[in-house]
Design goal:
This protein has helices at 2-10, 17-34, 50-64, 75-83, 97-104, 127-131, 138-145, 154-162, 177-188, 192-195, 205-213, 224-227, 260-271, 273-278; strands at residues 39-46, 66-73, 90-92, 114-118, 121-126, 168-171, 199-202, 219-223, 234-238, 248-253. It is α/β, with parallel strands linked by helices and 293 residues long.
Amino acid sequence: MRIFHQRLLSFLPGCGPLVALLLVLFFSLLTACSERSPKALRLAVDASFVPALESLREDFERRCHCTLHITAGASGLLYSQIRAGADFDIFLSADAERPAQLFRDGLTVPASLQTYARGQLALWVSRRLLADASSSEAPDIAMLANLPAAELTPRQLILVLGRGKHKVIVADPQLAPDGDAAVKMLKGLRLWPRMRERMVYANHGGHAQIMLLQGEGDMGLVPYSQAMLSGSGGEFMRVPSRFYPAMNQQLIILRRTRERTLAIQFVQFLLSAPTQERLPDVGFLPAGRINGR
C-alpha cells in the first residue's frame, strides 16, 4: 500500500498536496473495501450436531462466500445464553421445545422455525469391558455389538444395561435432549431404580463421548453421531428409535440477527434434498422421515 501511494503521487505532479492526499485516501478506501473480510453467520449449535455441520460447512461457505462461526454446547445452555442476550444469528437445538419457547417469547424471526434433523441414540461399550473375560456380561455385549439395530429387543437392551455395576455416561438430561431421551428410555424399560446410582452426567453429548474415551465409564448412551467418531475405543450399536421419545431437532433464526438474508440461505441449504440425503452418513435421520417407529 505504501508503494502504491508513492506511485500515485508521482503520477500527479500538477496537483496540489491537498488534492493528492484526497486521492490517496479515496483509493485507500476502495482497497480496504475490496479486502473486507467475508460475511459471517454466527450459529449456536447443539454439540451432537457439530460433527455433521463440520462436514457440511465447506460446501455452504463456498456457495455463500461467507464464514460460519460455530458455538457448540448443550441446547439448554445455549438457550440460556440466547435469552441472556448472546449474539447469535441462528439457534440449532437438539429438541423442539426450546426454539418454540424463544418463538413464543418474540425473540425470533417469524416463520423461521424448522425441523432440520432427527437425532438418534447409540449404546457405546468400551473395549475394556468387551475384552474382560471375567465379566459375565461380556459375551452378551460382544454379540449385541454386531446386531442390527432393528433386531435389538427390549429384553436384550435390559440384559446389557441392567447387569453389573459399570458406570453409564449420559449427557445432563436437564440441558441436553439426548441425555433426556436416554433417561426416559431407562425409565420406560424400568431400569432406572437400579441404574440411577451408576449414572455419570456429562455437559453434553460430545463431552459424554470424550469421557468414555478417557475411561471414565465403560458404557454410554450418547448421540449416534458422536459414537460414529469414537474410533477404536469401543463398540457401539444404534438404539432403535421406538425405545425413546422422538428427538426432533429444530432451528430458528433469531430476531437480533444482522444477516437475515444469509441466515435464510443457510436454512434453505440445510433443508435442501441433497443436504438431507447426507444426514444418515453422519448419524441423523432426515427431517421429513421417521425410521423405526
